[in-house]
Amino acid sequence: MNLKHRTVVITGASGGIGRALALRCAEDGVNMVIHYSGRNVDSKRRADALLKKVRSIAMAKGSNSKVAAFPCDLTSRKQVSSFAEQVFDEFGSVDGLALLHGYSSAGLWKKHSGDYTEAEEESIWRTDVMGSKYCIFEFAPLIIKTVQGVRSQGVPVAGSVVLISSTPALGSIPEDRDGRSIGEAFSAAKTAIISVMRHAVVDYKPHVRVNIVAPGNVETGWALDLSEKEKRSAAEETPLGRWIKPEEAASVVAFLLSSDASAVNNQIIVVDGGYVTGR
Ligand SMILES: NC(=O)c1ccc[n+]([C@@H]2O[C@H](COP(=O)([O-])OP(=O)(O)OC[C@H]3O[C@@H](n4cnc5c(N)ncnc54)[C@H](OP(=O)(O)O)[C@@H]3O)[C@@H](O)[C@H]2O)c1
After folding, report:
1. What is the Cα–Cα distance from 11 to 271, expressed in whole angstroms?
2. N or C, fewer C-beta in 10 Å, the chain?
3. pLDDT band, very low/low/confident/very high, at 149 (cuts 50, 70, 90)
């Protein structure tokens, strides 16, 4: 991956896919910001453990990459603004932004449309949609500042933002055993992410590429909420016959962040083992 010595901000690095991306970036000598929400002790504990692991990988590789962990509640524009300012003060550059945060709470994925409480609807929307927008509003100008220096030397580089959506946003709506749709509040938020990408592509051209990764069933924390039977049937619905590993979603994010994807812009890349088209 052509990201060595670049600076990448990973939101939701204390979560499953974000952690996998951080470990991948550590192997590749990337300067990295490990973001976590800081909303409870466990969030900080996971971020601290990851920071330690990333540093030990860098040391074993003899890499002098810079890594730091930052807490931020991404639902607050004010907090995101100060987060971005602190990152730029400390790192002096931002080349890539991987937006891998997202609201999650036990049982929410199985709810029927109209059954979400107002607080649940708001938490999903404010975290997944508004949190992603606030990060783009605050970090994209810093990415532009970073790449403009290189572009002035005649190299047509662009920074990269990667957003996360989900297969229901592409029309593959999950159903329960009675044929009722489930997870509507998440699908609505993940569909809005597509619009967030389209606008950002226009607003930050030609300095920033913006793309989406849309995973299917990735084996992270939320899967603990499912019974063995539910897990088995989710695997069986996928042409590959299995769940996606966090590393498999993270490697596509890493590709989009890197200059290997230098002409990829305004795209949604589905990482679902063929689920969307295979149903
Ligand atoms: N796993 C899947 O099957 C799947 C499929 C499709 C799409 N996705 C999407 O992919 C993304 C990552 O999924 P995942 O499974 O890795 O999720 P995860 O393990 O639940 O991690 C979610 C991350 O979001 C952070 N977060 C939550 N609320 C936040 C807030 N208010 N401010 C800042 N950070 C906040 C969490 O921080 P703390 O832990 O520090 O609180 C955590 O790092 C999510 O957007 C998810 O919806 C996942």
Report:
1. 19
2. C
3. confident
Start-to-end CA distance of the chain, whole Å, equals: 32
Helix axes of 77-91 and 131-151: crossing angle, nearest 10 degrees: 30
Instruction: Select from 11, 17, 110, 126 the residue to mutate for testing ligand 1; criterion: most ligand atoms less than 8 Å from CB.
Output: 17
* CB 164 less than 6 A from any atom of ligand 1: yes
Under a CB-based contact definition with an 8 Å cutoff, are residues 214 and 271 in contact?
Answer: yes
> Domain spans of the chain?
7-278
Which of 100, 184, 226, 243 has the most ligand 1 atoms within 8 A of CB, as the residue to mutate?
100
**In this predicted model, what pLDDT tens digit does every residue of 3-28 receive, in sequence order?**
878 999 999 999 999 999 999 999 99
Gap from CA of 215 to ligand 1 centroid (Å): 12
Q: What is the mean pLDDT of the chain?
A: 95
* CATH superfamily entry for domain 7-278: NAD(P)-binding Rossmann-like Domain (3.40.50.720)
Residue 66 has pLDDT above 70, yes or no: yes
Residue 232's pLDDT is 93
